[in-house]
Amino acid sequence: MVWLVKNVLVFVTLLLSSVFVIITESAPESALVTKLPGFDGTFPSKHYSGYVTIDKEHGKNLWYYFVESEKNPSKDPVVLWLNGGPGCSSMDGFVYEHGPFNFELPKKNNSLPLVHLNPYSWSKVSNIMYLDSPVGVGFSYSNNKSDYNTGDMKTAVDSHAFLLKWFQMFPEFQSNPFFISGESYAGVYVPTLASEVVNGNKNGVKPALNFKGYLVGNGVADLMYDGNALVPFAHGMGLISDELFENATKACNGSFYDIKGRECEEQVTKVNDDVDRLNMYNILEPCYHGTSLSAFDLRSLPSSFLQLGKTEKRLAIRKRMFGRAWPVRAPVRPGIVPRWSQLLADITVPCIDDRVATAWLNDPAVRKAIHAKEESEIGRWELCSGKLSFEHDAGSMITFHRNLTLSGYKALIYSGDHDMCVPFTGSQAWTRSLGYKVIDEWRPWISNNQVAGYTQGYANNLTFLTIKGAGHTVPEYKPRESLDFYSRFLAGSMI
Ligand SMILES: *[C@@H]1O[C@H](CO)[C@@H](O)[C@H](O)[C@H]1NC(C)=O
Ligand SMILES: *[C@@H]1O[C@H](CO)[C@@H](O)[C@H](O)[C@H]1NC(C)=O
Ligand SMILES: *[C@@H]1O[C@H](CO)[C@@H](O)[C@H](O)[C@H]1NC(C)=O
Ligand SMILES: *[C@@H]1O[C@H](CO)[C@@H](O)[C@H](O)[C@H]1NC(C)=O
Ligand SMILES: *[C@@H]1O[C@H](CO)[C@@H](O)[C@H](O)[C@H]1NC(C)=O
Ligand SMILES: CC(=O)N[C@H]1CO[C@H](CO)[C@@H](O)[C@@H]1O
């Protein structure tokens, strides 16, 4: 008996040491993030970051930040997260939405943001990777600037090449369920990349990726459905009158994405005038209308205003417009998407605050710690890059969604219901247009014993979900509710 126990122990020890050898040989130690300026606590899980070269000749490099699950990294899903733009860094998601930390603007000038643990980090239940894509965005770069001329399909091919290399570098994650997620313009990145992954697997590309499904938040999908979304949204939310809604619907024959005729144009202009001064990323939020931040005194706002859309995080003053999403209340059209600098020239309502992220990610010690190139080599980190010339060349996403869901991949299409940039009315309409059988009829879903929004479940594992009171960047506004729906979706349970 003693002999048996002893031998079992020896065997277990051997097994452990061989596993240990595999791990040390795989996850590259040089990518490990060991400390972060501004954070003095202990990391709840391992973090890795660095570059993956996808074209040696061009010196084309994509940068990632990978957070291991705080639960069971060897079993939990691996989820890729992509912010939109096109041209916005996925570190937006890391800093402002569902990353492992919350960032606090320092009281003193020139000091680093304070970094605390985020109790609602998506790394509580998944391994999650933030990828700066395409090259030219965030910390990703190429030595050949011609790579900054890109588009939907090229971006998908490059991100796929990145994934293949990354899973080779981290083979211990190859068997975990793999999901792709993103928001806003990533409504295009996610299904196009998913489609590349599925085709790659079909064609026997190695390593095979254990792809299971995807999530899209306030994502663009289709010119017609997204373009028709604003007027019914504005009406339903009480932003325009019944009469204007009726007149506009009549004048435009119910179709607002492709304005025909003077009468229709006049009516839509009236709608735009009514909603123009709202914060388009969350109609409940205050919006900064001046040119200098010091003139904007948060305390001068009624407290009821500040309480709306309240989360445990402090509501940021929305200052700079470098937003997280094309379109600016306009559907995505085929062809070249305007650059951020071009958009800024016409924008009168700047509502996005990127100060914490900009200060932290441009600090030389932070860049060193997260294995990003120095500013002297690749320039400053910007929330959204103006370097790209980007073509929307993938058309409507509806056929992609249809193919993916009919092939058995799970899809969660979620919307912060107070976002006016990509309103839920568009996502609701296109998901319904697929014509799948309703298997879980429209009902409230619950988080923390409260109604957190509404959901409608379709056949073929397609779920549409709203998050009540959330804006464009859902987890930024509703972190707790977001971790709830995210965990339930990944676990395959009812939301
Ligand atoms: C902080 O910096 C800004 C701009 O550089 C300056 O206007 C402001 O007076 C400074 N505040 C303090 C407290 O030093
Ligand atoms: C950059 O790439 C383009 C396209 O592959 C190529 O024609 C060009 O020669 C390259 N430029 C440099 C400086 O290598
Ligand atoms: C709606 O149309 C009617 C008839 O053309 C017009 O009299 C009315 O002023 C319009 N109302 C609004 C709010 O545009
Ligand atoms: C209005 O739209 C309907 C279908 O939605 C179409 O059949 C009709 O021809 C359109 N009318 C005009 C005047 O464009
Ligand atoms: C969808 O599937 C059809 C049939 O397999 C195929 O012809 C088409 O190219 C696919 N479209 C996309 C966008 O994946
Ligand atoms: C995991 C899951 O929900 N699978 C379902 C996907 O959709 C098909 C067809 O509607 C169902 O049969 C599966 O049970």
How would you sum up this structure in a few lines?
It comes from Camelina sativa. This protein has 495 residues and is of the alpha/beta class.
Main attributes?
Rossmann fold; 11-stranded mixed β-sheet; 34% helix; 495 residues; binds 2-acetamido-2-deoxy-beta-D-glucopyranose; 19% strand; 3-stranded mixed β-sheet; alpha/beta; globular; disordered N terminus
Describe how the helices and strands are arranged.
Elements: H1 2-26, E1 47-55, E2 60-67, E3 78-82, H2 91-97, E4 101-104, E5 114-117, E6 127-132, E7 141-142, E8 149-151, H3 152-169, E9 178-183, H4 186-202, E10 211-217, H5 223-227, H6 230-236, H7 242-251, H8 262-275, H9 303-307, E11 335-337, H10 340-346, H11 355-361, H12 364-369, H13 375-378, E12 389-392, H14 398-406, E13 410-416, H15 424-433, E14 438-447, E15 450-458, E16 462-467, H16 474-477, H17 479-491
Helix pairs in contact: 3-4, 4-14, 7-8
EC number: 3.4.16.-
Signal peptide: 1-26
Protein name: Carboxypeptidase
Descriptive notes:
By secondary structure, the chain is α/β, with parallel strands linked by helices. The protein has a single domain, classed as 3-Layer(aba) Sandwich (Rossmann fold). Helix content is 34%, strand content 19%. It contains 17 helices and 16 strands. It has helices spanning 2-26, 91-97, 152-169, 186-202, 223-227, 230-236, 242-251, 262-275, 303-307, 340-346, 355-361, 364-369, 375-378, 398-406, 424-433, 474-477, 479-491, and strands at residues 47-55, 60-67, 78-82, 101-104, 114-117, 127-132, 141-142, 149-151, 178-183, 211-217, 335-337, 389-392, 410-416, 438-447, 450-458, 462-467. The strands form 3 sheets. Strands 1, 2, 3, 6, 7, 9, 10, 13, 14, 15 and 16 form an 11-stranded mixed sheet that branches. A 3-stranded mixed sheet has the order 8-12-11. A hairpin with a 3-residue loop joins strand 15 (450-458) and strand 16 (462-467). Helix 4 (186-202) packs across helix 14. The model is unreliable at 1-25 and 289-327 (pLDDT under 50).
